[in-house]
């Protein structure tokens, strides 16, 4: 995706205001919302300079993709140039990050940040690693870039600054994917452009880039522990890199002065929290730290133990993955670093209904975890708390740390790496669930993500099964609105989820396979999981290519208002005695989680007739608009 595509000559023929207006409209179509004034102004100030340089270089037929969306996430490059390489005769692409800054310097105490003179707030992300990250993601995701190491390069162009005013940004700059140019080197920049492109038209090259097969995004559950321990597995971008560097620096400081500190990384669904967790786990292993990984989800932890550390040669690594409740008896600073992923699932206490009476304690679970590690790292989403006993929020961690006099360091992740990186879909989900003030909008596929409305659960199931035949992973989930009965003597799971003449069993509750169904922990990753309906507890923390979501009768639409009805919910963790306002928040959070598990597309169906009718005006019908599965490489 991109906001605007045109040749260098066409770009040069536009006035600054025309460039701003056309780019603004293009970005608005992509995001389904307007952009900030400062960003809009930057197009008028920077893009004409780039156009001038291309003309001066004799490259007026080069194709320019403005606000190019990096495949698989929500990041956008200012411009990507497409054309033919003068030495190889093959496609050549250049990512250009444009900055209006006049003066900037590194901030030694804030890795990945720079101090920019004349900019509100001054502290900004270092654009060099940003460009490198864009290039890394493109090389990883796009098949057209896999075989040719010369095809892609990246530059940072500070067109308003003299070199001496931004000298810091040249330090350790990657000469392939983060080369720096300032206004002092405008002639060198045009020479560099000529070294990357011939004067020939770049239209065909741009077509090949935009039409390239896209490699599926790797999940954390597809990696082995040895892969994680051996080398980096993900290209981290912007705030992800900031969080990673902050946690590393905090651990180094804590090891040096033996002073406890807390790191909190917050972000929405698919913002890259688990990728940061995996990168940190590997880095701390390689650095000789005593590191552990914990979650509050049996499905997530057991999948990590089974898939990530499941090989015979990796059994010793299984103990790295544990639970929040596993630190009740830990001594102070038993581990150097404790990575608490999905930390929104922190409970008030580690005790559960299965805890023996003589072992029960009133000690808060957060206290146990903070006590156990010199540096606990909490990764969480405040809007994924789904039951009253869960207290994992940034505010709660801050409150506890303040009481204990412990420093908290925080990074907010704003990127989107799920849902194909579609910012529009993220906004649609929040709008349709009335989690924001903005009204829900009519969905149109944006090239990154597809959304359809099924007329029935059977139509949804049929489509999901067809998608698996096309090498896509797919799962069907529902709100917890049907009873969950025990298996009978026939050795099969009962078909508890019944809607009209369609039925399907809930996922297997057991820790071992039963009746052809995988263990509950492997429902999201075992292909047999498509034969059962997943619930919030087996889906949270996981992702798959396509998601089918049944909106249960606890979600209703009447006279223009979306409401929740906890009386229709069968989850004992959401008791009927809960105040309506409280249960309302949990139910909306649950559906937000279920609606944001997919990487490529989602199919929805609502049991409530009013809500189903409402959705017909917002979502294309599966019957009238069959899903389009984009071509992708399987490598």
From TrEMBL:
**Which stretches of sequence are listed as region Disordered?**
112-131
* Coiled-coil features, chain-numbered ranges: none
Record's InterPro entries?
P-loop_NTPase, SLFN_3-like_DNA/RNA_helicase
Q: Which residues form the Schlafen group 3-like DNA/RNA helicase domain?
A: 260-608
Q: What is the protein name for this chain?
A: DUF2075 domain-containing protein
The organism's taxonomic lineage, starting at the top: Bacteria, Bacillati, Actinomycetota, Actinomycetes, Streptosporangiales
């Amino acid at each position: 995706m991109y906001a605007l595509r045109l040749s260098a000559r066409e770009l040069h023929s536009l006035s600054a205001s025309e460039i701003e207006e056309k780019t603004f409209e293009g970005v608005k179509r992509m995001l389904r919302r307007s952009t900030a004034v400062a960003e809009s102004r930057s197009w008028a100030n920077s893009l004409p300079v780039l156009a001038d340089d291309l003309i001066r270089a004799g490259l007026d037929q080069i194709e320019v993709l403005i606000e190019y969306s990096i495949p698989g996430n929500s990041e956008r490059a200012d411009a990507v140039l497409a054309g033919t390489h003068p030495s190889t005769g093959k496609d050549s692409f250049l990512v250009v990050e444009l900055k209006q800054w006049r003066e900037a310097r590194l901030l030694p105490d804030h890795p990945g940040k720079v101090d920019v003179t004349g900019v509100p707030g001054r502290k900004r992300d270092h654009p060099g690693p940003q460009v490198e990250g864009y290039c890394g993601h493109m090389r990883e995701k796009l098949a057209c870039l896999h075989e040719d190491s010369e095809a892609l390069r990246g530059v940072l162009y500070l067109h308003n600054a003299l070199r001496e005013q931004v000298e810091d940004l040249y330090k350790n700059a990657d000469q392939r994917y983060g080369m720096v140019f300032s206004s002092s080197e405008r002639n060198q920049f045009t020479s560099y452009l000529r070294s990357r492109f011939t004067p020939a038209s770049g239209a065909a090259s741009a077509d090949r880039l935009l039409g390239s097969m896209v490699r599926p995004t790797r999940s954390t559950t597809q990696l082995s522990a040895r892969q994680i321990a051996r080398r980096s597995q993900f290209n981290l971008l912007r705030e992800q890199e900031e969080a990673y560097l902050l946690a590393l620096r905090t651990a180094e400081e804590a090891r040096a002065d033996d002073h406890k500190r807390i790191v909190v990384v917050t972000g929405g669904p698919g913002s890259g929290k688990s990728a940061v967790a995996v990168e940190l786990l590997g880095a701390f292993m390689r650095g000789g730290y005593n590191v552990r990984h914990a979650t509050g989800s049996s499905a997530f932890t057991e999948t990590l133990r089974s898939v990530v550390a499941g090989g015979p040669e990796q059994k010793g690594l299984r103990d790295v993955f544990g639970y929040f409740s596993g630190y009740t008896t830990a001594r102070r600073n038993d581990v150097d670093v404790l990575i608490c992923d999905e930390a929104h699932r922190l409970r008030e206490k580690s005790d559960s209904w299965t805890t023996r009476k003589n072992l029960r304690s009133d000690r808060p679970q957060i206290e146990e975890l903070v006590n156990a590690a010199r540096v606990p790292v909490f990764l969480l989403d405040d809007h994924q708390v789904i039951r009253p006993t869960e207290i994992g929020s940034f505010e709660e961690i801050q409150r506890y740390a303040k009481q204990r006099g412990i420093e908290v360091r925080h990074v907010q992740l704003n990127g989107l790496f799920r849902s194909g990186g579609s910012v529009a879909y993220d906004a649609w989900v929040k709008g349709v669930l009335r989690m924001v003030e903005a009204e829900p909008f009519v969905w149109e596929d944006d090239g990154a993500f597809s959304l359809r409305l099924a007329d029935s659960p059977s139509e949804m199931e049929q489509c999901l099964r067809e998608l698996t035949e096309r090498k896509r992973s797919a799962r069907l989930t529902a709100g917890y609105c049907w009873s969950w009965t025990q298996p009978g003597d026939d050795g099969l799971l009962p078909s508890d989820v019944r809607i009209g003449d369609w039925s399907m069993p809930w996922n297997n509750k057991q820790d071992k396979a039963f009746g052809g169904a995988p263990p509950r922990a492997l429902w999201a990753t075992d292909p047999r999981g498509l034969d059962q309906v997943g619930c919030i507890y087996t889906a949270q923390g996981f992702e798959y290519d396509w998601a089918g979501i049944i909106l249960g009768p606890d979600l209703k639409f009447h006279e223009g208002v979306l409401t929740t009805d906890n009386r229709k919910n069968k989850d004992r963790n959401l008791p009927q005695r809960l105040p309506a306002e409280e249960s309302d928040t949990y139910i909306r959070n649950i559906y937000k989680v279920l609606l944001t598990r997919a990487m490529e597309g989602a199919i929805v169906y609502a049991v409530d007739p009013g809500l189903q009718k409402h959705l017909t005006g917002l979502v294309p019908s599966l019957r009238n608009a069959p899903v389009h599965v984009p071509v992708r490489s399987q490598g």
